[in-house]
Amino acid sequence: MNRRHNVAVVGGAATLLASAPLTLIFAGLFSWFLPIVFAVTIVVGIGMGLRTLRAPLPVVVLAQLVGLALFLTWTSASGGAALGVVPTGSTLSDFGALFKDASDTAATATIPVPESPGLIFVAVLGIGVVAILVDLFTIGLRTPALSGVPMLAIYIVPMAVMEDTVPWLMFIPGALGYLWLLLTDNIHRVRRFGRRFAGDGRNIDMWEPSPLASTGRWLTAVGVAVALLLPLAIPGVNAAGLLASFGSGGNGDGDGGSGGEGAVRVNPAMNLRGALTQDKTTNLLNVVTDDPNPGYLRLYVTNEQSDEGWSWGGDFGSGVSMAQVGQRQGYDPNLPGKQYKATVTVLGMRESSLPLYPNPDEVSVGRGWNFDPVTSMATSDSRNTENLVYEFKFTHYQFDEKLLRTAPPVDQGSVIFTENTRVDPIESIQKLAERLTADKPTVYDKVKAVNQYFSPENGFKYSLSTERGTLGTGIEDFLQTKSGYCQQYAASMMMLLRAAHIPARGVIGFTSGTKSQNVVQLTNRNYHAWVEVYFQGYGWVPFDPTPSGNVYGAAEMPWAPDSDTIDRSSNGASEDPQGPRGASGDPSLAGKDPLDPNMEGVLAGDDASAPKGPATWPYWITALVVLAILLAQPGLRRTSLRSRRLRPNGDGTASAHLAWRELQDLLIDYDYQGPPSETPRGTADRLVERPKLTGEAAEGVHVLATAEETARYSVHPPDDETADRLAGAVGAVRAELATHAGRTGRLRIILFPPSVLRAWRAAMSRGVAGTANALARARGRVRRLLTGLIRARGRA
């Protein structure tokens, strides 16, 4: 095999190793990895073949792109292609459909995602382009160090899309592939110098094992170890994922009844907004229950407030054993209620909290889950709900206005009061709370007044596109603009109640969904936020301030009349003439199935101006600018060096040495460097012979050689006239050498000058070698110390 072909093959293998993190994203392996293997093989094969024919670099890259396009056409869009492989106009339409399929799947599916045709197409295209870039940097431009940039981009993909951290083990294959590529390229460079000989003079074949390769393998191992362990020594870098892998591995037992491996760290508020703004409806849960009206299904609870309303945090691993579920305190034993049971099947959700109805009495789930009696949440720091099936029993209490009006104010010295009435002193919110609750005789009447304030009659409207006000905080802006979705409604009510010294907390979960017989279907359209208020003797009671017209599956709460229907009765009771919540306000939602594809977009909030997520183009532009700056560094460094060396400094000797050093770097850039022992005059004579410098260039190289000889050997430095000619001489030689390099060669030298890359590579090698030597010395000292201790113990 041609020696450069060997480097090309290693580059392809390194690309495949760098794709290892994608195994975290896809549910399977062969359906996406085999096409990637074929795509990389095609790219490497085309490059090897055309380089054998000595094709120019642009032709090689163009042919690789064409080959990748033909392969993608054949595997993904052959229906409208000529001969099944040649793209046509319809092929481009098919490609567009595949991109849309990939976007839809990525927006709605949970990780690991199903292997849809669109995602496989995007994966093969992306890895194919990376393979072309690696081949270009490694073989075409002979700068294999830059191949790490596209390989690193593959590792960044799961970091950007996964909710939890990427396992550190996924870093190792790509790092080993990258170092393998550098090692192979450098061994090839060294072996170009000629044949090797053993210490006894024996001739060594070129492909016999080399001590240099052994050293490279040791440096590779040290480099990977340092890359993994260095974050442990850097303040502020989270290395918990690395350290956790050496621990017990969590509390899970590995069975299917415990859920998926690994906790999920996701902001529930952001997850809520993302679910509501999706164009596609996805079935998340099926709940089988004997409760005819089970109400809302709780997922996350928080008593932490912020300028935006509430914040989420806490340790998901805290709590007590699941066997202690149901030990509630502070409830009136005479409170009417009935126990029901429910079986939950998770279809498309990955969370570290179990969806539960309020007041659970017993939960049957695998190991690794804990129960928090304060929030009634079942959470885990090592498991998630992926494909989980579990059962639980719960008590459905029958609240009504008469009962809740008997609740006395909560003791201000109790933990419940202090933990759930903390609120920042915002003057506008405090005044509004005082105005709404003034002259209200009971706690319940105060809560009801705040709940009814969010009525459309007061100007509030439901919108997924929140408006920015002029008051500063998110809650103040919402109360000013009166436009937002369930999170703003619930957070605002929570803050108003707390400002009125009434314990309240925020909840995110699901509405009552679509019920057929005893099966409740819950989709991403049922994600919702509401408030729970604490009543002495009755516990936490749910209130939903969001007008029900745009909330699919909103449950009817007799004690909390819908804010879409203003209560004008003397005793506070209200009748909703349009029936259960969810049918009023927007008749188009009444009786509609959220899984009906014709309802896409309608159920997303009926807001044509609702954003579909933050714009991504600023990030792409920023990434391209950063990449351009990084790629420009070698060329900028070379220009800076040349400018400093040729700048007049009034010292003839120094000017001669600097000009000669610039000439040596020019010879490295244009591949005309000579042996280190060559004299200045010998260098000048050689360049006149090859590459046949003529005219000003030939005269200039002799001027440079004469000045260098004078600076080295003469008592008198070069005169001012000679020093003034040095910059022009270097420019003439550089211009003449450029004519022998060709257009591609000149571009390569401008962007990635070999002299700079060689200097950087040497500096990196010295640093790595110094680190390895320091580790070896430390290991020797430890070994000697241990040996001395063992001997001392033996003598004793």
Give a quick precis of the structure.
The protein is an alpha+beta fold and 796 residues long.
How would you explain this protein's 3D organization?
The chain has a six-stranded antiparallel sheet, with no helix packed on it. Strands 5-14-17-18 form a four-stranded antiparallel sheet. By secondary structure, it is α+β, with helices and mostly antiparallel strands. The longest helix has 42 residues, at 754-795. It starts with a helix and ends with a helix. The protein contains 23 helices and 18 strands. The protein folds into four domains: 3-192, no CATH class; 268-599, C8orf32 fold (Roll), CATH 3.10.620; 624-752, Four Helix Bundle (Hemerythrin (Met), subunit A); 755-796. 37% of the residues are buried.
Number of helices: 23
Cα-to-Cα separation, first versus last residue: 62 Å
CATH architecture grouping of the largest domain: Roll
Quickly name the level 1 CATH class of the largest domain. Answer: Alpha Beta
- Taken from the alpha-carbon principal axes, the silhouette is elongated
Q: What is the number of E strands? A: 18
Question: What fold name goes in the CATH topology slot of the largest domain?
Answer: C8orf32 fold
Q: How many domain modules?
A: 4
In terms of per-residue confidence, which ranges show pLDDT below 50 for 5 or more consecutive residues? 234-256, 566-615
Helix content: 40-55%
Gyration radius over CA: 36 Å
Helix/strand class: alpha+beta
The quaternary structure here is single chain
Q: What is the strand arrangement across the widest sheet?
A: 7-11-6-4-16-15
Average pLDDT over all residues: 78
Organism: Actinorhabdospora filicis
Protein name: Transglutaminase-like domain-containing protein
Region (Disordered): 554-609
Domain Transglutaminase-like: 478-547
